[in-house]
Amino acid sequence: MLTVTDLTVAFGNTVAVRDVALTAASGTVTGILGANGAGKTTTLLGILGRVPRRSGTLTFDGRDVTGDDTGALVRAGIALCPENRRLFPNMSIEDNLLLGAYGHGRKVRRERLERTYARFGWIRDRAAEPAGRLSGGQQQGVAIARALMSDPKLVLLDEPSSGLSPVAVDEIGELLAGIAAEGTAMLLVEQNVRLVRKLCSTAYVLAHGRVTASGPVDELFDDDSVSDAYLGKV
Ligand code: ATP
Q: Of 63, 91, 138, 161, which one has the fewest beta carbons inside 10 Å?
Protein backbone atom coordinates (compact mmCIF):
# COMPACT_ATOMS: atom_id res chain seq x y z
CA MET A 1 0.00 0.00 0.00
CA LEU A 2 2.65 2.54 1.11
CA THR A 3 6.39 2.21 0.69
CA VAL A 4 8.69 4.94 1.93
CA THR A 5 12.42 4.92 1.28
CA ASP A 6 15.23 7.20 2.30
CA LEU A 7 13.02 9.76 4.06
CA THR A 8 15.05 12.58 5.58
CA VAL A 9 13.48 15.67 7.16
CA ALA A 10 15.50 18.56 8.53
CA PHE A 11 14.51 21.77 10.26
CA GLY A 12 17.38 24.09 9.48
CA ASN A 13 20.46 22.29 10.71
CA THR A 14 18.49 19.84 12.85
CA VAL A 15 17.93 16.54 11.10
CA ALA A 16 14.79 15.16 12.75
CA VAL A 17 14.35 12.08 10.55
CA ARG A 18 17.15 10.40 8.66
CA ASP A 19 17.00 7.75 5.91
CA VAL A 20 13.77 6.21 7.16
CA ALA A 21 12.36 3.33 5.14
CA LEU A 22 9.07 1.67 5.96
CA THR A 23 6.06 -0.05 4.48
CA ALA A 24 2.42 -0.21 5.49
CA ALA A 25 0.15 -2.90 4.05
CA SER A 26 -3.62 -3.01 3.53
CA GLY A 27 -5.63 -4.26 6.46
CA THR A 28 -2.71 -4.08 8.88
CA VAL A 29 -1.66 -1.66 11.58
CA THR A 30 2.05 -0.86 11.47
CA GLY A 31 3.55 0.69 14.58
CA ILE A 32 6.07 3.49 14.84
CA LEU A 33 7.60 3.41 18.29
CA GLY A 34 10.26 5.34 20.12
CA ALA A 35 11.03 7.80 22.86
CA ASN A 36 9.88 11.43 22.96
CA GLY A 37 11.63 13.42 20.25
CA ALA A 38 12.66 10.31 18.30
CA GLY A 39 11.08 11.65 15.12
CA LYS A 40 7.77 9.76 15.04
CA THR A 41 5.50 12.74 14.41
CA THR A 42 7.95 14.18 11.91
CA THR A 43 7.93 10.88 10.01
CA LEU A 44 4.14 11.04 9.64
CA LEU A 45 4.25 14.70 8.63
CA GLY A 46 7.10 13.99 6.22
CA ILE A 47 5.07 11.28 4.50
CA LEU A 48 2.20 13.73 4.07
CA GLY A 49 4.45 16.53 2.86
CA ARG A 50 3.60 18.77 5.81
CA VAL A 51 7.25 19.29 6.66
CA PRO A 52 9.99 19.76 4.06
CA ARG A 53 11.59 16.52 2.91
CA ARG A 54 15.29 16.69 2.21
CA SER A 55 15.05 13.32 0.49
CA GLY A 56 12.64 10.44 0.23
CA THR A 57 10.54 8.47 -2.22
CA LEU A 58 6.94 7.43 -1.69
CA THR A 59 5.00 4.77 -3.52
CA PHE A 60 1.32 4.58 -2.65
CA ASP A 61 -1.25 2.24 -4.09
CA GLY A 62 1.13 1.25 -6.88
CA ARG A 63 1.96 4.80 -7.90
CA ASP A 64 4.99 7.03 -7.33
CA VAL A 65 3.57 9.93 -5.29
CA THR A 66 6.92 11.44 -4.27
CA GLY A 67 6.15 14.75 -5.94
CA ASP A 68 2.54 15.02 -4.77
CA ASP A 69 1.63 17.81 -2.36
CA THR A 70 -0.44 17.22 0.77
CA GLY A 71 -3.76 17.84 -0.99
CA ALA A 72 -2.94 15.35 -3.72
CA LEU A 73 -1.85 12.77 -1.15
CA VAL A 74 -5.13 13.17 0.72
CA ARG A 75 -7.07 12.78 -2.52
CA ALA A 76 -4.97 9.70 -3.30
CA GLY A 77 -6.18 8.18 -0.03
CA ILE A 78 -3.88 9.13 2.86
CA ALA A 79 -5.49 10.73 5.93
CA LEU A 80 -3.92 12.08 9.11
CA CYS A 81 -5.39 11.81 12.57
CA PRO A 82 -3.07 14.30 14.28
CA GLU A 83 -1.50 14.43 17.71
CA ASN A 84 -3.82 15.95 20.33
CA ARG A 85 -6.82 15.34 18.04
CA ARG A 86 -6.92 18.95 16.84
CA LEU A 87 -10.69 19.32 16.88
CA PHE A 88 -12.20 22.80 16.90
CA PRO A 89 -13.80 22.75 20.35
CA ASN A 90 -16.32 25.52 19.71
CA MET A 91 -17.48 24.12 16.39
CA SER A 92 -20.17 21.46 16.23
CA ILE A 93 -19.13 17.84 15.98
CA GLU A 94 -20.73 17.69 12.53
CA ASP A 95 -18.77 20.69 11.26
CA ASN A 96 -15.58 19.14 12.60
CA LEU A 97 -16.38 15.96 10.70
CA LEU A 98 -17.10 17.87 7.51
CA LEU A 99 -13.56 19.30 7.58
CA GLY A 100 -12.39 15.75 6.85
CA ALA A 101 -14.24 15.85 3.52
CA TYR A 102 -13.07 19.35 2.64
CA GLY A 103 -13.06 20.00 -1.09
CA HIS A 104 -15.80 17.52 -1.91
CA GLY A 105 -19.24 18.54 -3.13
CA ARG A 106 -22.32 18.70 -0.94
CA LYS A 107 -23.61 15.28 -2.07
CA VAL A 108 -20.38 13.43 -1.26
CA ARG A 109 -20.05 15.20 2.09
CA ARG A 110 -23.62 14.23 3.00
CA GLU A 111 -23.02 10.60 2.00
CA ARG A 112 -19.83 10.45 4.05
CA LEU A 113 -21.60 11.96 7.06
CA GLU A 114 -24.39 9.40 6.79
CA ARG A 115 -21.84 6.61 6.61
CA THR A 116 -20.10 8.02 9.68
CA TYR A 117 -23.37 8.22 11.58
CA ALA A 118 -24.22 4.66 10.59
CA ARG A 119 -20.97 3.54 12.13
CA PHE A 120 -20.96 5.86 15.15
CA GLY A 121 -24.55 6.10 16.35
CA TRP A 122 -23.53 8.13 19.40
CA ILE A 123 -21.94 10.77 17.18
CA ARG A 124 -25.19 11.19 15.25
CA ASP A 125 -27.02 11.78 18.52
CA ARG A 126 -24.63 14.56 19.53
CA ALA A 127 -23.71 15.97 16.11
CA ALA A 128 -24.93 19.51 16.84
CA GLU A 129 -23.01 19.85 20.12
CA PRO A 130 -19.66 21.65 20.34
CA ALA A 131 -16.85 19.12 20.03
CA GLY A 132 -15.23 20.50 23.17
CA ARG A 133 -18.08 19.19 25.27
CA LEU A 134 -17.10 15.56 24.62
CA SER A 135 -14.84 13.44 26.83
CA GLY A 136 -11.27 12.85 25.68
CA GLY A 137 -12.10 9.38 24.40
CA GLN A 138 -15.12 10.65 22.50
CA GLN A 139 -13.06 13.45 21.00
CA GLN A 140 -10.54 10.89 19.82
CA GLY A 141 -13.40 8.92 18.26
CA VAL A 142 -14.52 12.04 16.41
CA ALA A 143 -10.94 12.74 15.28
CA ILE A 144 -10.73 9.22 13.83
CA ALA A 145 -14.17 9.59 12.25
CA ARG A 146 -13.04 12.90 10.71
CA ALA A 147 -10.00 11.16 9.19
CA LEU A 148 -12.32 8.52 7.69
CA MET A 149 -14.43 11.26 6.08
CA SER A 150 -11.80 11.54 3.31
CA ASP A 151 -12.39 7.85 2.48
CA PRO A 152 -8.74 6.94 3.05
CA LYS A 153 -6.92 3.76 2.15
CA LEU A 154 -4.24 4.60 4.71
CA VAL A 155 -4.66 6.47 8.00
CA LEU A 156 -1.68 8.00 9.79
CA LEU A 157 -2.49 8.04 13.51
CA ASP A 158 -0.43 10.09 15.95
CA GLU A 159 -0.75 8.88 19.55
CA PRO A 160 -4.49 8.23 19.65
CA SER A 161 -4.25 6.96 23.24
CA SER A 162 -2.66 10.13 24.54
CA GLY A 163 -4.32 11.43 27.70
CA LEU A 164 -7.08 8.81 27.70
CA SER A 165 -8.27 6.53 30.49
CA PRO A 166 -7.51 2.80 30.16
CA VAL A 167 -11.16 2.12 29.31
CA ALA A 168 -11.15 4.78 26.59
CA VAL A 169 -7.87 3.38 25.21
CA ASP A 170 -9.50 -0.05 24.95
CA GLU A 171 -12.44 1.46 23.09
CA ILE A 172 -10.17 3.26 20.65
CA GLY A 173 -8.30 -0.04 20.18
CA GLU A 174 -11.55 -1.82 19.28
CA LEU A 175 -12.43 0.94 16.84
CA LEU A 176 -9.05 0.82 15.12
CA ALA A 177 -9.09 -2.98 14.94
CA GLY A 178 -12.46 -2.78 13.21
CA ILE A 179 -11.19 -0.23 10.69
CA ALA A 180 -8.15 -2.39 9.90
CA ALA A 181 -10.39 -5.44 9.47
CA GLU A 182 -12.20 -3.58 6.69
CA GLY A 183 -8.92 -3.41 4.75
CA THR A 184 -7.70 0.08 5.67
CA ALA A 185 -3.97 0.36 6.28
CA MET A 186 -2.76 2.25 9.33
CA LEU A 187 0.53 3.68 10.49
CA LEU A 188 0.28 4.09 14.24
CA VAL A 189 2.59 6.28 16.29
CA GLU A 190 1.98 5.12 19.84
CA GLN A 191 3.65 4.94 23.25
CA ASN A 192 1.01 2.70 24.78
CA VAL A 193 2.60 -0.74 24.69
CA ARG A 194 -0.64 -2.59 25.29
CA LEU A 195 -2.33 -0.89 22.36
CA VAL A 196 0.64 -1.58 20.10
CA ARG A 197 0.64 -5.25 21.08
CA LYS A 198 -3.09 -5.50 20.47
CA LEU A 199 -3.15 -3.80 17.08
CA CYS A 200 0.19 -3.98 15.34
CA SER A 201 1.58 -6.91 13.42
CA THR A 202 4.86 -5.20 12.68
CA ALA A 203 6.54 -2.08 13.96
CA TYR A 204 9.50 0.20 13.47
CA VAL A 205 11.49 1.59 16.37
CA LEU A 206 12.91 5.08 15.89
CA ALA A 207 15.74 6.62 17.89
CA HIS A 208 17.28 9.97 17.09
CA GLY A 209 15.46 10.04 13.78
CA ARG A 210 16.65 6.66 12.52
CA VAL A 211 15.03 3.25 12.34
CA THR A 212 17.00 1.20 14.85
CA ALA A 213 14.87 -1.95 14.84
CA SER A 214 11.89 -3.31 12.97
CA GLY A 215 9.96 -6.53 12.59
CA PRO A 216 7.07 -8.47 14.09
CA VAL A 217 5.91 -6.76 17.26
CA ASP A 218 6.25 -9.86 19.44
CA GLU A 219 9.87 -10.26 18.41
CA LEU A 220 10.61 -6.59 19.01
CA PHE A 221 9.20 -6.71 22.52
CA ASP A 222 11.05 -9.95 23.25
CA ASP A 223 14.31 -8.30 22.32
CA ASP A 224 15.50 -6.93 25.66
CA SER A 225 17.90 -4.44 24.15
CA VAL A 226 15.08 -2.93 22.13
CA SER A 227 12.46 -2.96 24.82
CA ASP A 228 14.76 -1.67 27.57
CA ALA A 229 16.09 1.17 25.50
CA TYR A 230 13.01 2.42 23.72
CA LEU A 231 9.78 0.80 24.70
CA GLY A 232 9.59 0.50 28.46
CA LYS A 233 8.42 -2.67 30.15
CA VAL A 234 4.92 -4.02 29.67
P1 ATP B 1 6.95 13.11 20.71
O2 ATP B 1 6.53 11.76 21.13
O3 ATP B 1 7.51 13.92 21.84
O4 ATP B 1 5.93 13.84 19.88
P5 ATP B 1 8.36 12.43 18.28
O6 ATP B 1 9.08 11.14 18.22
O7 ATP B 1 7.07 12.54 17.59
O8 ATP B 1 8.23 12.88 19.79
P9 ATP B 1 9.11 14.67 16.71
O10 ATP B 1 8.03 15.55 17.18
O11 ATP B 1 9.00 14.10 15.36
O12 ATP B 1 9.37 13.50 17.73
O13 ATP B 1 10.47 15.49 16.83
C14 ATP B 1 11.73 15.01 16.36
C15 ATP B 1 12.80 16.08 16.52
O16 ATP B 1 12.55 17.15 15.59
C17 ATP B 1 12.82 16.71 17.89
O18 ATP B 1 14.15 16.97 18.23
C19 ATP B 1 12.06 18.01 17.68
O20 ATP B 1 12.49 18.99 18.59
C21 ATP B 1 12.42 18.37 16.25
N22 ATP B 1 11.35 19.14 15.59
C23 ATP B 1 10.09 18.69 15.34
N24 ATP B 1 9.36 19.64 14.70
C25 ATP B 1 10.17 20.70 14.54
C26 ATP B 1 10.02 22.00 13.94
N27 ATP B 1 8.87 22.37 13.36
N28 ATP B 1 11.09 22.84 13.98
C29 ATP B 1 12.24 22.46 14.53
N30 ATP B 1 12.48 21.26 15.11
C31 ATP B 1 11.46 20.39 15.12
A: 63
